[in-house]
């Protein structure tokens, strides 16, 4: 009788174990099947990106997806539109990476003309905010690709300059080499003092009439750089002397160009 009960107990344990194993396996299989069903396909990802680009300005953009990677091709009219398409694709669900091969079409403008137009636009950018004279940008153009360099007074001035270039017709690419001057109360004091000294000179105050202020004043850690263009050598010399006379200035680099003279290289 005892042996019979022991055998029956072992049989019950074995049956319970088998049922438990079967249930666990079924649950795992169901979970695995559910996860597979929820995993997005490349077609799902492609459709999601296409949906985010549902705008007239992206009408010529093509989207392809493979293993979570998205490739953008086609054409747009402005460089800023190409950038926006890239950002929208990156922010789409389940996208692992974006290869942006979009070509900027738009008008064909020769490099020298494009550079001249951008320089004119940038010289008047943010007029009225009081920082125009303290921004000094350099512009390089090669086959429509623009390299923007120099020093901006602050992040807002830099962003504004980059946005202006990115939205200008004819710009095919944009390389950002702009530095932002570090925050410094001492440099701010020097900027204002140098501006008053330079533009306050009787022979130079005519340059203050133009809101673009052709004499640019960059200050970093007490070092002053003058850039822009003046009418004659005497004006350049006076500007350098006046800047050197400001208290707290460590060094003055006078990069002012004289109209009609060969530009600095």
Oligomeric description of these chains: single chain
Average of pLDDT: 86
How many extended strands?
Answer: 12
Overall form: elongated
Explain the overall architecture.
The protein has 265 residues and is an alpha/beta fold. Helices cover 42% and strands 23% of the residues. It has 3 domains: 42-104, Histidine-containing Protein, Chain: A (2-Layer Sandwich); 111-180, Histidine-containing Protein, Chain: A (2-Layer Sandwich); 185-258, Histidine-containing Protein, Chain: A, CATH 3.30.1340. Strands 1, 2, 3 and 4 form a 4-stranded mixed β-sheet that branches. Strands 5, 6, 7 and 8 form a 4-stranded mixed β-sheet that branches. The longest helix has 37 residues, at 2-38. Residues 12-16, 23-27 and 31-37 have low confidence and may be disordered.
What attributes characterize this protein structure?
265 residues, alpha/beta, Histidine-containing Protein, Chain: A, 3 domains, 7 helices
Could you outline the blueprint of secondary structure elements for this entry?
Elements lengths: L1 H37 L3 H11 L8 E6 L2 E8 L2 H12 L6 E4 L2 E2 L6 H13 L12 E7 L2 E8 L2 H12 L6 E4 L2 E2 L4 H15 L15 E6 L2 E8 L2 H12 L6 E4 L2 E2 L7
Parallel strand pairs: 2-3, 2-4, 6-7, 6-8, 10-11, 10-12
Antiparallel strand pairs: 1-2, 5-6, 9-10
């Amino acid at each position: 009788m005892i042996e019979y009960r022991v055998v029956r107990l072992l049989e019950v344990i074995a049956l319970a174990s088998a049922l438990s194993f079967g249930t666990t396996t079924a649950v795992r299989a169901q979970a695995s099947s559910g996860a597979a069903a929820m995993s997005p396909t490349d077609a799902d990802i492609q459709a999601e990106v296409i949906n985010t680009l549902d705008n007239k300005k992206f009408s010529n953009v093509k989207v392809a997806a493979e293993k979570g990677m998205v490739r953008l091709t086609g054409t747009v009219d402005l460089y800023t539109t190409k950038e926006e398409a890239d950002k929208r694709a990156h922010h789409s669900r389940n996208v692992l990476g974006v290869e942006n091969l979009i070509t900027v079409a738009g008008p064909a403008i020769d490099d020298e003309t494009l550079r001249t137009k951008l320089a004119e636009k940038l010289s008047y950018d943010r007029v009225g905010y009081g920082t125009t004279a303290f921004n000094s940008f350099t512009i390089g153009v090669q086959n429509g690709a623009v390299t923007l360099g120099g020093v901006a007074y602050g992040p807002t001035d830099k962003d504004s300059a980059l946005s202006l270039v990115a939205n200008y017709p004819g710009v095919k690419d944009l390389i950002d080499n702009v530095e932002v001057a570090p925050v410094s109360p001492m440099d701010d004091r020097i900027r204002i003092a140098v501006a008053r000294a330079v533009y306050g000179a009787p022979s130079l105050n005519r340059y203050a009439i133009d809101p673009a202020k052709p004499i640019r004043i960059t200050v970093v850690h007490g070092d002053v750089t003058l850039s822009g263009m003046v009418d004659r050598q005497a004006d350049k010399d006076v500007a350098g002397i006046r800047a050197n006379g400001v208290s707290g200035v460590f060094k003055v680099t006078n990069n002012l160009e004289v109209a009609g003279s060969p530009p600095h290289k």
